[in-house]
Amino acid sequence: MVTYSLSKVCLAVCLAIVAVSGATIGKVSYVEGEVVIVENGKEKQLKVNQKIDLGDQIRTGIESVLEVTYTKGTVIRVGEKSKVTLSGSDVANNVKVGEGRVWANVQKLASGQFRVTTPVATAAVRGTVFRVESGDDSSSTIALYEGKVDVGPADTTKIKPQAAPSGWGPPVEVAGPYEVTMETWIKLDPGSEINVRWGGKFATREINKDEDAANRWIAFNVKRDQELGIAR
After folding, report:
1. How far apart are CA 46 and CA 30, in angstroms?
2. List of residues 6+ apart from 133 with CB closer than 8 A
3. Mean pLDDT, rounded, for 49-61
4. Could you give the percent of the chain with pLDDT greater than 90?
5. What is the rounded CA–CA span in Å between residue 95 and residue 69?
């Protein structure tokens, strides 16, 4: 009798996990070029208005862009030559960037958290505009334009227990080898960016406005946010 009851409980839990992993979180609101979803090893081109579910793995080709609008209003865009996985839960979304770049305009959340992770860093936010780039050199750059972002290592379990999100001061550009290892949450201020290398070494600096102005990817996202009425 006990065994039977436990079996039913296990079945219910498994079904719940499956339901959450496949829950619809939004839809494709813009697509350009080769943008595919990977299912069971097979690739299928994504189209506008196609639903996006938790757990979806997405790959973009050269000169390609994907925009996903979440049901709660958050908008993310995936740039060319990127690989991302959309995971998490109904209250804590997570965009895993294996490689490439992502622009995120995250609406303020009443509860839960929105995270973007790369092989070397984690960006945790509640409502903000920022971009993430995961490079071929195993480094990641996170740039903050509006709102607040706390940046930690990819494995957040390595953060020291006493290290709550810190009050990081004005960004300072570090010359030469990176000497500091990330062991705490680093709070970015608007207008600053952080570059994290393998092993957790990092450096911060102010966003270079001239570089941004000449960057087609950034210009596209700023214009797109304006068109959608979500620019800040």
Report:
1. 10
2. 100, 101, 140, 141, 142
3. 95
4. 53
5. 13
Q: Residue 170 belongs to what domain range? A: 25-228
pLDDT at residue 22 in the model: 67
d(CA 141, CA 220) in angstroms, rounded, equals: 18
CATH code of the domain containing 124: 2.60.120.1440
pLDDT at residue 89 greater than cutoff 50: yes
Amino acid at 1: M
User: At 130, phi and psi to the nearest 5?
Assistant: -155, 170
Rounded CA-CA distance 210/38 in Å is 37
Cα gap 65→2, rounded to integer Å: 53
d(CA 35, CA 187): 33
Residue 144 counted as domain residue: yes
Strands 51-53 and 24-32: antiparallel
Q: Is the pLDDT of residue 168 over 80?
A: no
Distance from C-alpha of 21 to C-alpha of 13, rounded to nearest angstrom = 12
- Number of domains the chain contains: 1
User: Which letter does DSSP use for residue 164 in this model?
Assistant: P
